[in-house]
Design brief:
By secondary structure, the chain is α+β, with helices and mostly antiparallel strands. Helix content is 16%, strand content 21%. The longest helix has 17 residues. It is globular and about 75 Å long.
């Protein structure tokens, strides 16, 4: 990911990708599945990955590869977002940052290969040259298909049930997508100019009560929500917006954080905005996996302005959740 310029944003979109591209050694940005951890030292433990509100384990949501140009100690840098999956809570959120120099104990100094590794298929052949599929359990003809993923085949309901209990349930429900980054086009929406005399003429005879009602309708809340909709209208499928140090776009005039609402990093530096998760991401998160009540308008992630490296492990950063409010 390139460094965003002043006022510019980079947009993230979810796209299907082969499994090998989502492994740690490829430095992926991705949604769903399991974390592809960056550094292998000092991983967050069960206590760090527990919901601060209900204490239940958090579910992995996404990770973003965001190195800092010019920073040797952050040549590799990634952010990992988790949320609570346990109803009725479904509200806890935590985000962690990890960074490494180019020369480190875990990865090659050279960039990863763009070619798929030789072992990308299943160790057991489950499809004949004729196209016929075989049962994942016994290897016999598998005319039945998993109704959820449509990729696993079985000879019988009994073997499908057995495979579900042995682990296919987790593999089937954990969909993964690569986050592909594109620079937001600098396109200014057309502004329709209205003749002020027309407004004056049409409202000149309006009663005072009606004028008050119109003024209330054109509220700050409406303007912020309309600005949000206009901003994303050109790329409605965006699931995140990245721009370290720029201003986020809010979906509501309610619950916008002030400077004092964003805690400083333990190193003493201020935290600055880095990226926001858009409500469109919810389309890629299965409700039966993450809980029916998981919802947000905007998730804004703030990170240490100095991107400090206080240890070789993972540093917790700050998430601000803004919900969607009812608009007229």
């Amino acid at each position: 990911m390139a460094a965003a310029g002043a006022g510019a944003a980079e947009l993230g979109f979810a796209e299907a990708a082969p499994a090998w591209r989502l492994r740690s050694e490829q430095f992926p940005s991705k949604v769903g599945g399991r974390p592809a951890w960056l550094g292998e030292a000092g991983l967050p433990g069960p206590a760090e990955l527990a919901c601060a509100l209900c204490g239940r384990p958090l579910a992995f949501v996404l990770q973003l590869y965001a190195p800092l140009p010019g920073r040797a100690d952050a040549f590799h840098r990634a952010l990992f977002l988790f949320c609570c999956r346990a109803p009725p809570c479904c509200a806890g959120l935590r985000v962690f940052r990890n960074q490494l120099p180019r020369k480190n104990d875990f990865y090659s100094y050279e960039p990863p290969s763009e070619a798929p590794p030789p072992e990308t298929g299943e160790s057991v052949r489950l499809q004949l040259n004729s196209g016929a599929h075989l049962c994942r359990v016994c290897g016999c003809l598998g005319p039945k298909t998993c109704s959820r993923c449509h990729k696993a085949h079985y000879c019988s309901k009994e073997h499908q049930s057995l495979d579900w209990r042995l682990g296919h349930k987790q593999a089937c429900t954990q969909s993964e997508f690569e986050i592909v980054i594109e620079t937001e086009d600098e396109i200014t929406p057309e502004v329709v100019e209205t003749d002020e005399s027309e407004i004056t003429g049409s409202m000149g005879e309006a009663p005072e009560e009606e004028l008050d009602s119109i003024a209330k309708h054109e509220s700050r809340e409406d303007k912020i929500f309309q600005k949000f909709k206009t901003k994303i209208a050109l790329e409605p499928e965006q699931i995140l917006r990245y721009g370290r140090g720029i201003a986020p776009i809010w979906i509501s005039g309610e619950n916008i954080p002030q400077e004092e609402d964003i805690p400083d990093c333990p190193c003493g530096a201020k935290r600055i905005f880095e990226f926001q998760v858009m409500p469109q991401l919810l389309n890629y998160l299965k409700a039966d996996t993450l809980g029916r009540s998981v919802d947000w308008g905007v998730l804004a992630i703030f990170t240490c302005a100095e991107s400090c490296r206080r240890s070789t492990g993972y540093t917790e950063e700050f998430v601000w959740k803004q919900d969607v409010t009812d608009t007229p």
